[in-house]
Design goal:
Blueprint: H1 3-6, E1 14-15, H2 20-30, E2 34-38, E3 44-49, H3 67-73, H4 75-86, H5 90-93, E4 101-102, H6 107-117, E5 121-126, E6 129-135, H7 136-147, H8 157-169, E7 179-184, E8 187-194, H9 197-208, E9 215-223, E10 229-232, E11 235-239
Length: 240
C-alpha cells in the first residue's frame, strides 16, 4: 500500500498569517492535534501542533533557565524560544523543518520516517501543493480494514505445516534446525529448543497467523547459552 491509499484528502489547514488563537480553536473544533500551514498560493510552508502551544507566556509556561545556562545556549536559541512562546501568528511558532512524502510513497517508508523523526503526521505533496496528509490514525484505519479480510485457510494439516515451515525459513531469527512442527486437526504443536526466550512468543505468533490454525501448543525448551539454564514454557526445569 502507498500514501495515496490511506491518506486523508479533505485537509484541514490554516494560513500562515492566522493567529495562534485561531489555530488552537480550529484544532479543538476539529479534534485534531496538528495543522498544515499554507501560504496565499496554497503551498505548504510549515506545520503547527499542540506541542507548539505548550510553552506560552499567556499561561505562564515559557521556558526559564539559570543565567549561566542561558549564556551557554547563546542569543540565537534564546531569541528563537522567545519568539515561539510570545509570537502571535502561526508563522512565528510553526515548525518549518518539514518531512514530507509523495502520493506513491510506500507505507513502510512512511512508518520509517515517523519513527526516525518522531512525528505523528506527514504531509503528502504533489509538487509543492498539499494534496493529503498521513497520520498514525490513517495507518490504524488501514490495519483495521485489512484485518477484516479473512485469508484463505490451508486445505489440510499438511498444507498448514508447509506454510508454517516456509514462513519460518524466511525469518533469520527462527531456529528452524532446532525445532519440529506437528499439525493435527488444525492444532499446531511446537517441539524443540530455542536459545532466546523471546523466540518462543515469536514462533507462536508465526503459527497463529497461518490460515486454518485453530490452536498452538508450546512444548519448546529454552536453553540459555551463557548459564546453561533450561526452561520450558512454565518456568525453570533444571540448571547445568
Amino acid at each position: 500500500m502507498k500514501a495515496k491509499d490511506v491518506m486523508t484528502r479533505s485537509i484541514v489547514s490554516i494560513d500562515q498569517d492566522a493567529t495562534i488563537l485561531q489555530a488552537a480553536r480550529l484544532m479543538l473544533q476539529r479534534r485534531i492535534s496538528g495543522l498544515p500551514v499554507v501560504n496565499a498560493s496554497g503551498d505548504l510552508v510549515g506545520i503547527v501542533t499542540e506541542g507548539d502551544f505548550l510553552r506560552r507566556m499567556e499561561i505562564g509556561t515559557e521556558r526559564s533557565r539559570p543565567r549561566w545556562l542561558e549564556l551557554l545556549f547563546g542569543p540565537g536559541k534564546l531569541a528563537s524560544e522567545y519568539m515561539h512562546s510570545h509570537g502571535r501568528r502561526v508563522e512565528e511558532v510553526m515548525a518549518i523543518d518539514l518531512h514530507t512524502i509523495g502520493e506513491e510513497t510506500p507505507l513502510n517508508e512512511i512508518v520509517g520516517l515517523m519513527e526516525r523523526h518522531r512525528v505523528k503526521r506527514l504531509p503528502v505533496l504533489r509538487g509543492k501543493k498539499l494534496v493529503g496528509i498521513v497520520t498514525r490514525a490513517n495507518l490504524m484505519h488501514a490495519l483495521s480494514s485489512l484485518a477484516r479480510v479473512a485469508p484463505v485457510p490451508a486445505k489440510d494439516d499438511a498444507a498448514i505445516r508447509e506454510r508454517l515451515l516456509a514462513e519460518l525459513n524466511s525469518e533469520q531469527w527462527a531456529p528452524v534446525a532446532l525445532i519440529d512442527v506437528l499439525v493435527q486437526n488444525g492444532v499446531v504443536e511446537l517441539w524443540g529448543t530455542i536459545l532466546d526466550g523471546r523466540q518462543r512468543g515469536a514462533l507462536k505468533v508465526v503459527a497463529e497467523n497461518i490460515p486454518g490454525v485453530k490452536a498452538v501448543h508450546d512444548h519448546l525448551v529454552w536453553i540459555e547459552p551463557m548459564s546453561g539454564m533450561v526452561m520450558d514454557e512454565k518456568g525453570v526445569v533444571a540448571a547445568e
